[in-house]
Amino acid sequence: KKSRKKPHQPALLGPVRPRVKVLLPLPLDGAYDYGVPEGMAVPGPGSFVEVPFAGRELRGVVWDGAPDPTLSEGRLKNILGTLIVPPMTDSLRRFIDWVAAYTMAPPGAVLRMAMSVPSALEPPGQQAGWRLSPAGEAARAGGGGYRLTEGRRSVLDIMLPGEIRAGADITEEAGVSAAVLRGMVDQRLVEPALLPRRTAFPSPDPEHPGPELRPEQEEAAASLRNLVGERRFGVTLLAGVTGSGKTEVYLDAVAECLRQKRQALVLLPEIALSAQWLERFQERFGCEPALWHSELGGRRRRNTWRAVAEGEAKVLVGARSALFLPFPDLGLIIVDEEHETAFKQEEGVIYHARDMAVVRARFSQAGCVLVSATPSLETLNNAEGGRYTALSLPRRHGGAGLPEITVLDLKRVPPERGRFISPPLVEAVNETLARGEQAMLFLNRRGYAPLTLCRTCGHRMRCPNCTAWLVEHRAQRRLQCHHCGHTEPTPPSCPECGAENSLTAIGPGVERVQEEAALLFPEARRLVMASDTIPGPAAAAEAARQVAEREVDLIIGTQIVAKGWHFPGLTLVGVVDADLGLAGGDLRAAERTVQLLHQVAGRAGRAEHPGRVLLQSWIPDHPVMQALISGDLDTFMAEEAAARRPGGWPPFGRLAAVIVSSEDERAADRVARDLGLSAPGGEGVQVLGPAPAPLSLLRGRHRRRLLLKARRDVAVQPLLWDWLSRVEVPSAVRVQVDVDPVSF
Ligand code: ADP
Ligand code: ZN
């Protein structure tokens, strides 16, 4: 009979090698044991090492915990080398383990987010160079009793103590072959070191003059300075209407952190569009901060990673993944727009960066400041319970009033047939433009039309891979799925009945509003701001410039205009469809709609010009509209809380979603049903479902969802582990857990 085992390897002779555990950036169960070859110093916990794994060479980190002594010597592979970068700190390792345990992701999958290590390994990679070892310095000075060849002598002569140079540089100047240098490395006269980085990371100057803070700002700033000064963990909510000067206040806390000689991290929800924020940082501190986001190229990435690890990058602004950077001494984390759902990562390791920021701050003995004009119910609840300190700036800077918000009842003032902008909104835009001010039309929907149907047979164009309609993008003459990216050319005739010129756009997208605006306001210079037209930082900076320099009269935008922009000349915001976010059964829909529309409204009017906001709605009496009109968001949130508390919905209870998905619908249903049958119960625990997930078909996979709801004092992870282990899952089915889902 054929054995599937590999041929038996003879046990190595000689002393037993030291062993270490190495965590690899892969979704594996845990850390693996490796041997340390003779002559290599045993790398301590946190060291970055290269190891063989499944026929490849991989980088990992020496992890905590004792290696398995029963693993036979013969099966133990050796570490290949240690990377010459600062080891990963205890606090980051503990944070990674914590995130893995909380989100139920494999620790290696979490580690992967922390691995942009420059390749500086023995033997040298990209950024590695050489310097004299202490022995080399002694030999250079004539000590140590070395007998040196002429080649080695000339290498010593040209290498100054402390200087780090690339190998090719050394051999060329000394006129020797690479073998000579290699021999000196073996002899430990020369040792590897990282070449100096070519990109410098300038230090922001905390004493660079900032604006003089108003008394109420100063009071909040003093509290934050205090938080930072104590050099211990604490969370503060900094609330206050848009334009009240929160940013200036938290930049003051960043300055205090710099004075403390610790590093600061600022998380922004849309870092790629934050050109204006960067400008303000530059004004406040005299230089740019380090940046971290998904569009950074490989070299910039590794350089930034290293600058953070070496403590040279003092302030880093980034997207959520910046939480996993190797700050050796993090003193402050700011989460701006903390209520934003963009902080939730929905793929791979499913985590909420706002919540994890609090945890990272705790492990780092750092302060954490959550900033928002419309804080999430979670954060408000933590503030109310005394777990977070609450600060608030109630007034706008410069005496500017909040914009006046009015609802236009579309039942009373309907737009013309086939149009989407009602007569009073048309008039308001005309008035604004006539005064030489800027206006904005807001619609949170990309493309031309959200639905295309055939007038002859009623056929609707839908995505072949998702439960979603295809969205027309007229400029490209294509239909697009906004969930999976599927696109196809807009067909000339109905694919179902063949009728010519029968496909009709139903409902508006931002492109269609722009088309209508072109008819209504032909003189106005218009700018569409959507992710299709503003894909990255350069386009964002250019858009900001055009608006600031008044090259634009009318902005037509999706939700990307809601965040962080400062448009001083903008005095009117028209919300084309204020009801849009309220459709569907999501319990959080109202909270999110209020947050988004309040944020959009906040773009209108600053110091010199009061602003005006018109909300077009079919349901003007809805509590969301009423809250926006009155501006009394506190009461609205209190009512939201009161509605969620009795049912034990978050934040008053815990929630985890279990998503079952498969290309095979019956297989998905079977696993979902089995999960339903073996659902945990007991005191304070309830399982809802299975039911079709909100997108029941996504990227060709059928999705079912079960919700585990538990009292706050129940630890849901052990329950979930136990539950999932009791159900057999065939390989065609994937089961994902989303702890604290953002929609429910
Ligand atoms: P928020 O972050 O609350 O929306 P900002 O910090 O962006 O508010 O402040 C709104 C505007 O007021 C910005 O243009 C900012 O530069 C200005 N501002 C805020 N505080 C001051 C201050 N103390 N002195 C001068 N300008 C200020
Ligand atoms: Zn799709």
Automatic annotation (TrEMBL):
Nucleotide-binding in keyword set: yes
GO molecular function: hydrolase activity
Coiled coil feature spans: none
Binding site for Zn(2+) 1: 454, 457, 494, 497
Region (Disordered): 197-218
InterPro entries: DEAD/DEAH_box_helicase_dom, Helicase_ATP-bd, P-loop_NTPase, PriA, PriA_3primeBD, PriA_3primeBD_sf, PriA_C, PriA_CRR
Record EC number: 5.6.2.4
Cofactor(s) needed: Zn(2+)
Keywords annotated in UniProt: ATP-binding, DNA replication, DNA-binding, Helicase, Hydrolase, Isomerase, Metal-binding, Nucleotide-binding, Primosome, Zinc
Gene3D superfamilies the UniProt entry points to: P-loop containing nucleotide triphosphate hydrolases (3.40.50.300), PriA, 3(prime) DNA-binding domain (3.40.1440.60)
UniProt-listed SMART domains: DEXDc
Comp. bias (Basic and acidic residues): 205-217
Entry's cofactor comment: Binds 2 zinc ions per subunit.
Binding positions (Zn(2+) 2): 463, 466, 481, 484
DNA-binding recorded as keyword: yes
Catalytic activity, reaction form: Couples ATP hydrolysis with the unwinding of duplex DNA by translocating in the 3'-5' direction; ATP + H2O = ADP + phosphate + H(+)
Domain Helicase ATP-binding: start-end pairs: 227-393
Chain's role: Initiates the restart of stalled replication forks, which reloads the replicative helicase on sites other than the origin of replication. Recognizes and binds to abandoned replication forks and remodels them to uncover a helicase loading site. Promotes assembly of the primosome at these replication forks.
Self-association and partners: Component of the replication restart primosome.
Family: Belongs to the helicase family. PriA subfamily.
Protein name: Replication restart protein PriA
Organism: Roseomonas elaeocarpi
Lineage: Bacteria, Pseudomonadati, Pseudomonadota, Alphaproteobacteria, Acetobacterales
Gene for this chain: priA
